[in-house]
């Protein structure tokens, strides 16, 4: 599975409550519409660790193949979700991984 991991910081002047209202109330639903998306996990840095990082949220998007991920990022659904998100993103980083789940 290809995992696309995005890290983002809150923009200057935006409260966590304002961000969470948009993220949970709108963005998660928009992201779930991205074609080819097989897995979607959202994460928030625990309060005790926020002073140790500039990032606030991490999202993991899973696709069957790199071609599926590329196609998703060319879709209207992706363009819409990302264009809307630009207002709510401070610093942003994205990484691509070839991921294997290890079962215990």
TrEMBL record:
List residues traversing the bilayer.
none
Q: Which organism is it from?
A: Ramlibacter agri
Q: Name one Pfam family in it.
A: EthD
- Please name the InterPro entries in this protein's record: Dimeric_a/b-barrel, EthD_dom
**GO MF entries:** oxidoreductase activity
Q: Which positions fall inside the EthD domain?
A: 13-89
Q: What is this protein called?
A: EthD family reductase
């Amino acid at each position: 599975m290809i995992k696309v991991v995005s890290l983002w910081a809150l923009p200057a002047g935006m409260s966590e409550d304002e961000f969470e209202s948009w993220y949970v109330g709108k963005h998660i639903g928009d992201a779930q519409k991205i074609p080819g998306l097989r897995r979607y996990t959202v994460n928030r840095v625990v309060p005790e660790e926020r002073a140790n990082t500039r990032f606030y949220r991490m999202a993991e998007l899973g696709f069957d193949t790199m071609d599926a991920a590329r196609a998703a990022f060319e879709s209207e659904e992706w363009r819409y979700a990302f264009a809307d998100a630009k207002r709510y993103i401070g610093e942003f980083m994205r990484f691509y991984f070839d991921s294997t789940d290890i079962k215990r």
